[in-house]
Amino acid sequence: MARILVVDDSRTDVEQMSTLLSKHGHQVLTADSASRGIEVAGREQPDIILMDVVMPGVNGFQATRELTRADTTRHIPIVIVSNKSQQADRIWGERQGASGYVTKPVNQKEILTLVKDLVAS
Known about the structure:
globular; alpha/beta; five-stranded parallel β-sheet
């Protein structure tokens, strides 16, 4: 199955996502900040990144932009997973290079299908 990096400063959200993904056979890596997520992504080269937006310091949009423009990580699909649900947020996420956008609370079937589709492509 896939190696998935979950980047979120909410311990509860990380645990819920990790449990769901692990239960479906995925290996889960975690980072509690966008800066740390950038480091882990570069070092570990996950198959996909699930990125929160609202985090202290560097936000998820900034991290997505950095990761999708770096030679070493541009091939990794990033899905924004956020409480921000406005159409403008979705468009901004796409402009930063995100491959998908899911709002919290996460629909389990939706996220699993999205992960499967992005890893397969």
